[in-house]
Amino acid sequence: MAGATPIDLLVVTVDRRLLDQLIQLLVAPRSHGLKLLSCVQTWSTIGQQRTIVKHVRIRAAGNQPCWRAQVSRGIDTHVDMPQTEDSFGQATRAAVLGGTTTLIDFVPPMAPGQRLVEAVENRIAAINASAVIDVGVHPMLNRADDQVLTDIKTVIDLGCTSFKMFTTYPENLVTDGDAWRLMRAISDHGGLPGFHAENHTILGEAQRELVDQGRTGIADFAASRPALAETTAINTLCLLAKELGSPIWIFHVSGAAALRAVTDARAIGVEAYAETCTHYLTFDDTVFTGPEPWRYVLSPPIRSRADQAMLWDGVANGTVQAVGSDHNAYSLTTKRPTATDFRELPLGAPGVQIRTPMLWHQAVNVHGLSVGTFTEISAERAARALGMFPRKGAIRVGSDADLVLIDPTASWQGTDLEPSVDNSFDPYADEHGRGRPRHVLSRGHQIVRDGEFFAPQGGDRFLPRSPRS
Ligand SMILES: [Zn+2]
Description:
Blueprint: E1 7-13, H1 16-27, E2 34-46, E3 49-60, E4 75-79, H2 88-97, E5 102-107, H3 116-130, E6 134-139, H4 146-157, E7 162-166, H5 176-188, E8 192-196, H6 200-212, H7 221-224, H8 227-244, E9 248-250, H9 256-267, E10 272-277, H10 278-282, H11 305-317, E11 322-324, H12 332-335, H13 355-366, H14 371-385, E12 403-413, E13 432-442, E14 445-449, E15 452-453
Parallel strand pairs: 4-5, 5-6, 7-8, 8-9, 9-10, 10-11
Antiparallel strand pairs: 1-3, 2-3, 12-13, 13-14, 14-15
Helix pairs in contact: 4-5, 5-8, 8-9, 13-14
Bound molecules: zinc ion.
The site of zinc ion has 3 residues, from loops.
């Protein structure tokens, strides 16, 4: 049959115009009388210049099977929209302009008397109404009554397979006994229990000591939430996981001690996952004595430079599975920048827009990690752990064609990235980096062209995920 022999193209470019031509080939192969069979991109250094290398396999149109490009990159595992002031439309637009193609949001804690199923269905409806990229959810659990235990199976069947529980914040915390009960129900049905792990009473004691000494300024914020609170919570929860034979996901691992607690649990046979966040990989605790320190008040706190180095080791050697933004898009009015007492500041900061460019810059340019390690930490490990693989996080036949083309030579400043809410603040405003997303395809449709939001793809964007087998 005419055209049956595939044609291989190798495109090596630092030229954005060539990238544009290539994207045309990707999104409209039929207009060229060609069918796209596969597309794999890598990067290499030629001379002094980092260069994009794309291997495209095409075939003349005929009766041959037509495969789309399968490239999945950019999964943000931690977007805290229940706490914040942006919509799914705004947050997902900011995310995709920054090269994030999938994010996992949360179902807000249940209101008194509200059923878990109702809370989850409301969240799915809100996502489908306005999100422009695929969004999954971790339901937050703040009760362990029989109704919740019954609903856990139902929401896992709906595709919400990972959960978040809190060991602090009095309005939502679960006791160790509740955690045990909920973990059993979740793991029995193939779900993944996850935790905000800071021991509430140790936080209370640390803060009492500081208050007694009159140390309530932002410079003392990190001391008010010591690593000891994280490690004691992680140790206890991992012992429960071991007893139950349950997997466990630890959200926002902030430093060396918490990561060691997770790896210690693995050493005794616990299937324990560690998520860290962009801010722990970017900043250290000197921000609390620098300009506008209120911008960095979030929890668990940003820790020392040595902690940050240990997290990068974990990214490089595979002990860290995911990097979330822990995006909390407060307006300036809510964040209260004039507050000088750390107890008056709401915890959290925005960051969904900068996660991928910052992770690329830090991983590839600063820490010298391979592009392969970047793609693993940016998407693949999280996709595997959170029931999205191989639909997400893989370049395969049958996977979603979520493709991010990064121009590795393009420089950026934090303020170049579009915020998701007006009148907000940006802890990354003064940061610089190199490597900027130029084109983004979501499920095969181009939605960012040359750095501009191009066209929202209609349709439901709630992303159901698979339970563990
Ligand atoms: Zn948390």
